[in-house]
From TrEMBL, chain A:
This is ABC transporter permease. Keywords: Membrane, Transmembrane, Transmembrane helix. The chain crosses the membrane at residues 23-44, 64-87, 108-130, 150-176, 183-203, 231-251. The keyword Secreted does not apply.
TrEMBL record, chain B:
Residues 6-233 form the ABC transporter domain. Keywords: ATP-binding, Nucleotide-binding, Transport. InterPro entries: AAA+_ATPase, ABC_transporter-like_ATP-bd, ABC_transporter-like_CS, P-loop_NTPase. GO terms for molecular function: ATP binding; ATP hydrolysis activity. Transmembrane segments: none annotated. Pfam families: ABC_tran (PF00005). Belongs to the ABC transporter superfamily. PANTHER family: ABC TRANSPORTER, ATP-BINDING PROTEIN (PTHR43335:SF4). SUPFAM superfamilies: P-loop containing nucleoside triphosphate hydrolases. This is ATP-binding cassette domain-containing protein.
């Protein structure tokens, strides 16, 4: 129970520290961006994108999920992780944090939970906004047929698979953001790896990159039967291992 | 109650193989105001970081309130309030929220926030964002954060930085009260030697990672020999003559010479020596050295103490 108490207090501290920062705004803006782009493309160019009597949700959801997992999710994770850690780095408050009577693990875990929670919020928003956007397209452009079909479960499963397979990337970025005080280094690393992954996506070696696992899950298909759930398990395992390894590495370091 | 709130045993530390602390044996009596003095780069902040566990120390090298700092980290930290270098504050939060972050870790009553805000006279500015605080206000908030939770031991690194003379006096009086009336141990590193002289009961002087002195103010005064200040018509010649005769010259600038003397007959001897060599003396003045004199003597001539 004492461990839970430490975690609860650390988590309450992290929530308070995040107050008035841009982390929540970024968690909202990233999904808004990807859904708005897909919505505008559908609204303006739907006649070309959607065929009569074919479920338009298939193409619409594919645009959103691929756009999200290939580019926005990794870049957003890199920025969000750097922002979460910038709260301490910019104020140089690590020395205060570690001279309080709180175990180092509770500081680490609560920060990781805050970051993962923000990314979970973004995924919920991707799902909610995608559903809302499709519904709006059904109202504004009934000729596309959004109001006649649905794809709730696939979209929800897609968002969930994206989150779980991206956990490995989250743990890696989390460690980099905590380890390096410069905002540019972890954010730049994440951006570079994302772009490299997008370019070299067809190469077998790219499967080793945790930044590509969220998109590789979908196996270029919106059919759940074709999805590669192995990346979900690998993502979760990497999250666990990188999380523990990151903590051990951080806990051994002197505090600047 | 343990006799010493802080004890270090042969504590040494090196950054990238560059030694910065050498065999430090500190003993900070419980209930004292312990002034930790030293020039920049002497190892004061490194010592404080080691005490707080921010830098890893060798096992059994540090005991705080009688407990090993490595094996009782949380228990020890729950009884310590610290201010390390400049106060580390969350600029996007208000003063009250900064204290709330500390309160959550220390699990103390919310009323304590009001109490410490009152102690450092920040009650009226508590809702303001810290980014709008002046340097002095930030310093006072840092002290309030250290006081939150009624700690047994306060470790304060340059706590009066950025404060005006009135603020310095308030903090001095606060620390004296905490020590004398509430039995707190206050470990203060500072460059303000005059301030230390006014409030410290015990002192340690550190230079280039070596502990040069540790003891009470009275012991320090006892160690120090009186100082003779001289003004002559030719200070350079007088300096050379005195050095040749084996006197210990202190840094007195070009306008006047300062010499350590053992007794009054030595003043006569110096007088005769200079007059015999044709140097005219305009002024001879003997005085008991201040802490500042002593500090500079020790840090510029570390061997002085060993010779006594």
């Amino acid at each position: 129970m004492k461990q839970l108490d430490y975690f609860t207090r650390s988590f309450a501290q992290e929530r308070l520290k995040a107050k008035g920062t841009q982390v929540v705004w970024l968690a909202i803006l990233a999904p808004v961006f990807v859904v708005v782009v897909a919505f505008m493309a559908s609204y303006l160019d739907g006649n070309r994108l959607y065929q009569h009597n074919v479920n338009p949700w298939l193409a619409y959801s594919t645009h959103i999920l691929i756009g999200w997992t290939l580019f926005v999710f990794p870049i957003y994770t890199s920025l969000q992780s750097a922002l979460v850690h910038a709260i301490e780095h910019q104020s140089q408050t690590w020395k205060t944090v570690y001279s309080l009577p709180m175990p180092k693990w509770s500081v680490y875990v609560s920060k990781l939970v805050v970051l993962t929670g923000l990314i979970l919020l973004s995924h919920l928003l991707v799902f909610g906004l995608a559903e809302g956007g499709g519904w709006l397209l059904g109202m504004l452009k009934p000729q596309y047929g959004f109001q006649l079909f649905s794809l709730h479960r696939v979209l929800a499963e897609g968002c969930f698979a994206s989150l779980l397979s991206g956990l490995g990337m989250i743990a890696v970025q989390f460690y980099l953001g905590m380890r390096f005080s410069s905002f540019i280094l972890p954010a730049g690393f994440g951006l570079m790896v994302t772009l490299t992954g997008a370019i070299s996506r067809s190469l077998p070696i790219s499967r080793a990159s945790p930044y590509l696992w969220p998109v590789l899950v979908f196996n270029s298909s919106i059919q759940t039967d074709d999805w590669q759930y192995t990346y979900v398990w690998i993502g979760m395992l990497t999250f666990l291992l990188a999380g523990i390894g990151g903590f051990l590495a951080i806990a051994r370091r002197d505090v600047a | 109650m343990v006799p010493f709130s802080i004890e270090t045993h042969h504590l040494s530390h090196a950054f990238h193989n560059r030694p910065v602390l050498h065999d430090l044996n500190l003993q900070v009596p419980t209930g004292s105001i312990f002034g930790f003095l030293g020039p920049n780069g002497s190892g004061k902040t490194t010592t404080i970081r080691l005490l707080l566990g921010l830098i890893r120390s060798p096992s059994t090298a540090i005991r705080l309130m009688g407990k090993d700092s490595r094996t009782h980290r949380l228990e020890i930290l729950s009884r310590i309030g610290a201010l390390i270098e400049s106060p580390a504050l969350y600029n996007h939060l208000s003063g009250r929220d900064n204290l709330e972050v500390i309160r959550l870790a220390r699990q103390v009553d919310q009323k304590q926030i009001d109490r410490v805000l009152g102690m450092v006279q920040l009650t009226g500015d508590a809702q303001q964002k810290v980014r709008a605080y002046s340097l002095g206000m930030r310093q006072r908030l840092g002290i309030a954060m250290a006081l939150l939770g009624d700690p047994h031991l306060l470790i304060l690194d340059e706590p009066t930085n950025g404060l005006d003379p009135a603020g310095i006096r308030e903090i001095r009086e606060l620390l004296i009260e905490l020590s004398q009336r509430h039995g707190k141990t206050v470990f203060v590193s500072s460059h303000l030697l005059g301030e230390m002289e006014k409030m410290a009961t015990h002192l340690a002087i550190l230079n280039e990672g070596h502990l040069l002195f540790q003891g009470t103010m009275a012991q320090l005064q006892h160690l120090q020999l009186p100082v003779l200040s001289l003004e002559t018509d030719h200070n350079a010649t007088a300096r050379a003559l005195l050095q040749r005769a084996g006197y210990q010259l202190l840094d007195g600038g070009t306008e006047q010479l300062t010499v350590s003397v053992k007794d009054r007959p030595q003043i006569g001897a110096i007088n005769r020596l200079l007059l015999d060599q044709g140097v005219s003396i305009y002024k001879l003045h003997m005085h008991q050295p201040t802490l500042e004199d002593l500090f500079f003597t020790l840090t510029s001539h570390p061997k002085t103490l060993e010779n006594r």
